[in-house]
Amino acid sequence: MAKPELSYEEAREQLVEIVRKLEAGSVPLSESMALWERGEELATICQKWLDGAKAKIDAARAEATSDKA
Fold first, then answer.
1. How confident is residue 3, by pLDDT bands cut at 50, 70 and 90?
2. Is residue 5 included in any domain, yes or no?
3. How many CB atoms sit inside 10 A of residue 16's CB?
4. Spatial CB neighbours of 48, under 8 Å, sequence gap ≥ 6
5. Cα 62 to Cα 57: distance, rounded to the nearest angstrom
6. pTM score, two decimals?
7. Which of 10, 31, 33, 50, CA to CA, is 20 to 30 A from 57?
8. Residue 2 lies in a domain
9. Looking at the domain assignment, is residue 1 inside a domain?
10. pLDDT tens across 22-56, in order?
């Protein structure tokens, strides 16, 4: 898996800010669409980080289980 360009925390913080702007409803439609698209990209980055973390945990659990056997 290629490492995302942003850390999980950076991507999540940017995503939170985008959600705040969109929920406020104070941006024009064209900007809202651009923010939505960037939010989708950031959500994907966050999901990649979470999937990677889960894979590491699953691997560690499998190794710990096989060590006990």
1. low
2. no
3. 11
4. 1, 4
5. 9
6. 0.81
7. 10
8. no
9. no
10. 999 999 999 999 999 999 999 999 999 999 999 99
